[in-house]
Design brief:
The protein is an alpha+beta fold. The protein is built from four helices and 13 strands. The strands form three sheets. Strands 1, 2, 3, 7, 8, 9, 10 and 13 form an eight-stranded antiparallel β-sheet that branches. A three-stranded antiparallel β-sheet has the order 4-5-6, covered by helices on one side. It has a two-stranded antiparallel sheet with strand order 11-12.
């Protein structure tokens, strides 16, 4: 989880694989998506995000004082701005709810509405090798004054994960066949894939 504050907002980015978040990923950001579970044309691919272990969501929220009980936001703001004093962040993707904990004190957000930026993160391997590789599909976003910081948080999360995994991020990446009979969707590959598929990351 990445967090930063500007005095009126807390920008929080999280990587998550909770089933409800993945099944509703096309409706997490208020923008059009063919994977919107209400209106999308390829919603048959959504179960693959849940049952395939190589897929996670990366989402960013703009947390405001109205997302917390009275007084909690400003206490939390002091935690986030206090760079040298650590706190724990947990995110329940089924409820879209954050819990921040410091010195046995917890601050819980209300269930959240729309995120402002989301990606799908996939794990595969460099083609013709067993070298692990990770890839993020194109972002879906809506207007927000902190969109640049949100994009930077996504990039930092991605590069940090790649370093921890020892994973490649460039080249021809092979994404494994989905266990979902309806296949797995990829913007980068051009649509629905019912077998393993290749993505070129540069």
């Amino acid at each position: 989880v990445f967090t930063e504050a500007d005095g009126r907002s807390i920008i929080a980015t999280v990587k998550n694989s909770d089933p409800k978040l993945l099944l509703t990923i096309g409706d997490v950001v208020c923008t059009s998506s063919c994977q919107n579970y209400r209106t999308g044309s390829v919603i048959r691919t959504l179960p693959g995000y849940v049952i395939d272990g190589n897929v996670q969501a990366v989402v960013t929220f703009d947390l405001k004082s109205t997302d917390f009980q009275r007084g909690d936001f400003f206490k939390l703001l002091s935690w986030v701005e206090g760079k040298d004093d650590p706190y724990l962040v947990e995110f329940d993707g089924n409820l879209r709810q954050f819990t921040f904990t410091k010195n046995k004190t917890s601050i819980v957000s209300k269930p959240l509405g729309y995120a402002f930026l989301r990606n799908i993160l996939k794990v595969g391997a460099l083609d013709q090798t067993t070298t692990p590789a990770i890839f993020m599909e194109r972002p879906y976003e809506q207007s927000n004054p902190f969109l640049m910081q949100m994009r930077q948080q996504h990039h930092s999360l991605f590069t940090n994960l790649a370093e921890r995994m020892g994973a490649a991020t460039k080249g021809q990446i092979r994404i494994f066949k989905s266990r979902n009979p309806g296949g797995q969707y990829s913007d980068a590959s051009g649509g629905v894939n019912e077998t393993e598929y290749l993505i070129y990351a540069n």
